[in-house]
Each structure stands twice: as structure tokens, then as C-alpha cells.
Amino acid sequence: MGNYISNIYSNLGRFFEYPVKRKPICFYRQEDFTATGDPQRRMTNIINATMTDYDKLVDQFYKRLAEQRQFNQDMKDKDRRWSMQKVVERFPGWNEVTIANLHSLFLLFDNQSNGMLGFDDFCAVLESLGEESGLDQRKEKFIAADSDNDGWITYDEFLSLVYNYDHQPANGIEVTGLAKLCNDVADNIQFVSNLTVGEQLEYGLF
What we know:
By secondary structure, the chain is mostly helical. The chain has two domains: about 40-90; about 90-200, Recoverin, domain 1. Helix content is about 65%, strand content about 0%.
């Protein structure tokens, strides 16, 4: 029993020999940092002088990680711009705003979230654009665009269908029919989005 109690006291002694120490709290002056929170150069020199090799290694890792993420984002933006440019070239008379608006409509009415539109979804897109053709014409155009006859059209087929729906190209540049209507709707949306709240109130948009 005595040995058991002595062992407890010895263990408690070792515990209190190594108390848990809090890290010191450091306060820096506001003028030592830029408006974005980055340390000023003179503050950076002080921090670098007090950093251990491990801290420097971790700091270097996060810097390289940030650079790689920025590079990846730049490449994605470049690919997106390149893809948009290729799409615009396929549909003369349309611009990036029109195609972006059609893409938003496609995603909005993709009720199955499978990257395709059914006939009812396609009709809903046409109605949202203000197109007033009959049901028979819509069905005929939709079936013609459905290359694999599965009752669905992909985004690429959707763009071609809308562009060539009732478009009668005269000189290969100006668009007519539904293709022109898509341009007009996209221009109106862009116009409204560029208005301030006060200007929208003046136009009676609320």
C-alpha cells in the first residue's frame, strides 16, 4: 500500500515538473500591416528573423500552394474564354452575352439535372424567351434536333436548335427569328443588370 501511494506522489511530482505553457500572445501595431493585412517590409524582416526553419518551410509551402492555385484558376479562365470564343464562332451574329444567357436558361430548365432537355423543358425555354410558335412546329424542330431519338437534346443540340429554329440567314451575319429574339432578350437583361436600384425604380422594374 505504501509503495502504491509513493508511486502516485512521484507521478504527480513529474506532472507538475512539466506544466503546460501557453504560447505568448504577440500584439503588433496596425501601421505594421498594409490595408490588405500583409505585413510591411520592415515587419516581414522582423518576422523572418524570428522564424524557425520549420516555420520557414511551412511558409514556403503555403506560398507555393497559393501560386499553384492562382495558376490553375488562370488556366481555367483561359480555357473558359477559349471555349466561349469557339462557340461564338459557330453561331455568327450571337455574342458572349447571348450564349451565356442561353446557358443559364438551359441550366434553369434542366429539371432532371442530367445535362439534357426534354420536349417540355424546351417549350418552357421558348416561352420564357417570348417565342410564340405552335406546338406542332416546336415538336417537329425538336425531333429533328434529337439526333439519337432518345427524347432529349444536349446543350450543343439546344444551341443549334435555337439558332436555326426559324433563322433565314441573308448575309451570314445578321440573325433573324428566334436567334434574334435571343439577342434582344440577352441585351435587355444586360441593360437591366447595369442599372442602379434607383434607375430600376425609375423604369418601373419594381
